[in-house]
Amino acid sequence: MSNIALYHESEVNILGNLNAKRDSIVTDLYRAHNSWLLGWLRKKLGCSFDAADLMQDTFSKILQKDDLSGIKEPRAYLTTVAHGLMVNHVRRRDIERAYLDALENMPEVDVPSPESVNIMVETLAKIDEMLDGLPARVRSAFLWCQLEGLSHAEIASRLSVSVSSVRQYIAKALLHCLNMNS
Amino acid sequence: MNSDCPPNKIITEAADWLIRRQESPLTKQEQEQFDSWHDQSKDHQKAWRMAQTLSRSFQSVPSGLGNTVLKRSQKDRRQLIKLLSGLLVVPVTGVIAFKTLPVSNWTADLSTATGKQKTQILADGSRIIMNTHTALNILFDDHLRQIYLIEGQIQISTAKDSLSRPFIVTTQYGQVEALGTVFQLNQLSDGIEVSVQQDTVEVTTLSGEKQLLQAGQKAVFSQYDISHPKPSHTADSAWVEGQLIVDDEKLSHVIHEISRYRHGWLRCSPDVANLKVSGVFQLHDTDTVLKNLANTLPISLVYRTPYWVTVDKPN
In what residue span(s) does the FecR N-terminal domain sit (chain B) (predicted)? Predict the structure, then answer.
């Protein structure tokens, strides 16, 4: 039942927020594809609640776009927007879970406020996103160096590679992050 | 990327300075070198600010904790990794807009129906043969010739490129770079089989494992690993000629192969799954293949409908 209510609420919210200019485009998009998109998200996520939320977010995001007249392939467009949101959502959810687990295993740490949990999860998610696509070894070397302050020599012996390789790994990861940020 | 972003060379230098400063405090001489580097231009200053901002975001994470969270196991990352590669798995009819690429760069989307094959010559003269039930996208730009294999089986013969751009096939498990080559990729249920007919390819999995494969070799790779190269056989590429060649294979395997070329459901009963089969079969007419099998093996074909066939023990 709650699922149906949520779905209904999304629809009201979205249709209530339209400004005149985009009215017909987004309404048509929503009417024609909302159940398809919900199905697509549900299949990818395996969870109806998250799927309904993300569908809402997808249409909210589209509402903020300046130019909607160029949409030629509505489903490709919707899935592109939804996919970006879905990746963020899953990353944040995983990191939040791992962070709270890690906190629990550190009895000496005071329970942080919800705001500071939020900020830390956001920071960690950003770092995680920056490191996407880097080989496992490069990622490990970089995290040991930046987060734990291990020396290049220590990292080299952990990974059984030369110190100059470690330096290369770190330079590569750093450059990757800087390029992602720019 | 912003248009006012510092050039890549300066960003690389900023990264290098950051590493040097993290390694050990700068000597007086190094500090002078750094200062004169930094004061060269607005771009240098901006690149350094970017490097510092990045460094600060790492310093804000408590040591130990951040690493535990970010190094969470591959198992925990599975859904995310799948999603990150998952944009490639959107049905091909939807036109895939890869997040970072303008849609207009997609010069083509190609697919074949079940039981069909198609040969396509690409803009650079390379040739792709697509087997049954295959979908891919093509993205060529000034720097790269790239194919996204969404599903199915392809053979690629690369042509020499006037711009010397690399030729890369990307899949959900990783990528294959052609080093002047004829090679094939086949999407299996849990990986990609690559076999090389000419020259060499380099396989790189999503997790960063690399392996060179020479002509006459094949291997299967998934997200995390690559199998040891094995010799490939001419039979492996018989599909290009519309044939299935098997030598002493289990019937269940042969039926599975044939089912790829048929609509509907083709099933092999466990009672006859281990019968051994050798032969050359023409894939364009799978009904005749089944009939021939039934003529030579102790099996019967149960046609519930033309789309629902079971290969079973004799009645």
Answer: 13-54
